[in-house]
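Example S7 (structure tokens).
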């Protein structure tokens, strides 16, 4: 179906003008009636953030999303354009996308007066009606609203107060659309003041000359909560004019985090090597992010982005891919020892407090990996040191007898006999699996509590058991550059460190 190309054809088509907020409100109502997903690709906000955004759109509000880094604020804002009509008419050549039935600028009005019903019409796609600006200290009023063009004034012989000498900024050029400002507190207060009249009175001043123009713009913003940033604040009058304030959050469950990471990460590679990531390794990757959000070494005011587990699992897959290229294998499974070479994805994604800086970024990242293993192990495996109910304090101190009766007894006795296991990320699968399978009782534990789906996953599950026992101080671990990681008996390692002197 062809669209009207002139003002006359548009009038005869029965087109009726409506504001952007009314347009978005009608779209939301239709989607709610049809039970259509409102924000596809955004996971974990269905019962928390999405209802608040819907309420703001139904109320025809300008709104702000407040939240820490990596909480999908920008994605939510950019997805708002789906609530606009697919195409909307505008007067051709007008920089402000003037409504043909309600011309906004002097240029648009002049065209309508000159050409009447023959005024040419263009149709603007909804994606072109969304614009955004990252707030930085160098942003000026001219960038956002506009400035007087003295050359144009001299050429046209017009006064500076004439609308025709204005060089419009990005907000007026987004007329009949959605304009977003990311990281609003970074905008200087004097620039924030310039937005006040646009939000309420729909007019603005340029170099002292008032310009009244019925701009039709939905204004949306994103920011870290005010007390979470040292870079700036949102001035009170501007905050008062933003109708709705909506808080975002990190995934409320590990399952949601795993789903987000799986959606956003690049795991399907083109090297011809099949890299498999076991489900318990996906849980481990997400657990590292959860532990980072609880760590005393990490600045929780800055937050831990959802990009951390995404980058971590990509590095994890890359290390397995690198091993396959070196060993000539066509199929590999990611291992626990692969995490040590994926640690750069963690160290670069967290802001450290003073204690963390003193420990060092690399040490903190490795500690977070260890905490992730320990947390996952405690959720999947029984506690070997857990005392039985009703026992006296003296009886509870007999950890050795309780440990001997536990499921870990065969494995720990094997190590107590002087045996050692060495694994590394460059071992071929056959040798890697053979070394782990030699540990008495290890395969049974891995099978029972991790439920691997294949032989390759079985070997990785066994390594995870060893690392979990180390993180719970039941096994010793020594890591050497190049040789890999050795797991040993804890007691003998402690005694060997005392030396031979009395």
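Recovered sequence:
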């Amino acid at each position: 179906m062809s669209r009207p190309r002139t003002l006359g054809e548009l009038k005869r088509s029965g087109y009726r003008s409506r504001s952007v907020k009314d347009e978005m409100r009608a779209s939301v109502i239709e989607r709610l009636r049809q039970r259509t997903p409102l924000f596809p690709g955004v996971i974990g906000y269905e019962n928390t953030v999405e209802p608040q955004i819907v309420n703001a759109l139904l109320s025809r509000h300008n709104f702000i999303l407040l939240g820490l880094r990596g909480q999908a604020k920008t994605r939510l804002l950019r997805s708002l354009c789906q609530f606009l009509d697919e195409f909307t008419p505008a007067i051709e050549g007008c920089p402000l996308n003037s409504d043909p039935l309600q011309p906004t600028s002097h240029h648009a009005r002049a065209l309508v007066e000159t050409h009447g019903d023959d005024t040419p019409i263009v149709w603007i796609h909804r994606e072109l009606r969304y614009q955004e600006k990252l707030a930085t200290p160098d942003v000026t009023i001219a960038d956002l609203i506009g400035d007087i063009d003295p050359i144009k004034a001299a050429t046209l012989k017009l006064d500076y107060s004439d609308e025709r000498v204005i060089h419009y900024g990005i907000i007026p050029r987004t007329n009949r659309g959605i304009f977003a400002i990311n990281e609003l507190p970074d905008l200087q207060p004097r620039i924030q003041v310039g937005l006040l009249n646009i939000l309420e009175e729909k007019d603005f001043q340029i170099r002292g000359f008032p310009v009244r123009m019925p701009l039709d713009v939905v204004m949306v913003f994103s920011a870290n909560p005010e007390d979470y940033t040292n870079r700036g604040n949102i001035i009170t009058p501007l905050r008062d004019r933003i109708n709705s304030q909506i808080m975002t959050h990190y995934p409320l469950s590990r399952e949601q985090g795993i789903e987000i990471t799986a959606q956003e990460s690049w795991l399907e590679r083109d090297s011809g090597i099949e890299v498999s990531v076991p489900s318990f390794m996906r849980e481990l990757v997400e657990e590292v992010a959860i532990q980072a959000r609880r760590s005393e070494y990490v600045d929780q005011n800055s937050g831990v982005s959802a990009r951390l587990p995404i980058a971590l699992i990509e590095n994890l897959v890359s290390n397995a891919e690198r091993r396959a290229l070196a060993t000539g294998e066509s199929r590999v499974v990611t291992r626990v020892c692969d995490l040590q070479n994926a640690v750069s994805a963690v160290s670069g994604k967290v802001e450290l407090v003073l204690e963390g800086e003193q420990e060092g970024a690399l040490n903190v990242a490795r500690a977070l990996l260890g905490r992730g293993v320990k947390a996952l192990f405690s959720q999947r495996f029984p506690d070997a040191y857990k005392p039985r109910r009703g026992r006296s304090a003296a009886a509870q101190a007999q950890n050795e007898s309780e440990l001997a009766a536990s499921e870990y007894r065969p494995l720990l006795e094997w190590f107590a006999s002087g045996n050692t296991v060495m694994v590394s990320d460059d071992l071929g699968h056959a040798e890697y699996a053979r070394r782990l399978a030699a540990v008495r009782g290890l395969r049974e534990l891995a099978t029972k509590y991790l439920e691997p789906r294949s032989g390759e996953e079985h070997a990785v599950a066994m390594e995870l058991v060893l690392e979990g026992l180390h993180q719970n101080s039941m096994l010793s671990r020594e890591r050497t550059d190049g040789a890999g990681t050795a797991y040993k008996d804890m007691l003998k390692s402690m005694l060997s460190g005392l030396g031979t002197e009395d």
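Notes on this example. The longest strand covers residues 217-223.
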